[in-house]
Protein 1
Amino acid sequence: MNASTSLSTRLSDNFFLNEFTISQEAERHGYRNEPNEKQIDNLRLLCVNVLQPLREIIDVPIFINSGFRSFDVNAAVDGKFNSQHLEGKAADFIVPSMNLVDVFNIILQKLSFDQLIYEFGKWIHISWNGELNRKDVMISKKVYGKTMYEKVVGDRLSVISEERRV
Ligand SMILES: [Zn+2]
């Protein structure tokens, strides 16, 4: 981060850098969670290509739960070692005023992305990787304490059971 980039930097019309860097885990542990220029560029691409277009379609606020994660923060939240959050290419979010399955289906049907994951019935994980986009669509669940991913086939997620503790 340099003088021209502050945490109040706007990434797109409705998204600011600080929404992607604030982390309760970082604060709890005293870890830094500051992206470098390359990681900020990736966050901007994620906003411009996915989150901002989604924001304009649904026309209601999107809340970022987790955006960029430094190595320490990623470890603290038990993130995968190669998580795209480390590169600023992924975000987890909720849309409080909408059914999350509806939001998921809008993304699936109208937008381009790398990975789209309906996580534990609680939030949506989305990533953008430019020309390397895989368009992977998955649901994650906890099964006996382990995270399992199931591929979603077709162009919509049908109603799935709300979070079930197994
Ligand atoms: Zn995520």
Protein 2
Amino acid sequence: MKALVYHSPGKKSWEEKPKPELKKTTDAIVKILKTTLYETDLHMKGDLLEVTDGKILGHEAVGIVEEVGSSVNNLKKGDYVIISGITSCDKCEFCKKEMYAHCKKGGHVLGYTIDGTQAEYVRIPYADNSLYLIPTGFDKEALIQSIKTEPKKQISHKFRLGKLL
Ligand SMILES: [Zn+2]
């Protein structure tokens, strides 16, 4: 698949990478439809030490579920989803307080400690708690704008209330 790959400060390139595979039963593989460009992606200066040579950049996206692990219960192949940029286990003390960015097993990992969303496909850990199902008929372009401007807690709250957009 094609992906935007970081190499060193100021050096990144659009190149061929292996398509991601499920690593845990709680993972999902998502085909990216639209993704975002964050300012750190543009100005990667080597100050984010977690972003190492070979890492795929990108945080938030909208996509279609391609494959789910055997422990994923709330999603299936073909579902449209939001990738918020944060993964959450939903079990640690921070997740229980809805402080998902501080999840002990996840948080801001996409495009930092694990491969991100500026690619044709991405692996999402804890898919049941890290992906948001998009109801039929939603404008996916508008959703991309929403995930750039609203923290995950608000997105999740508004989705539960049916008030996003
Ligand atoms: Zn957690």
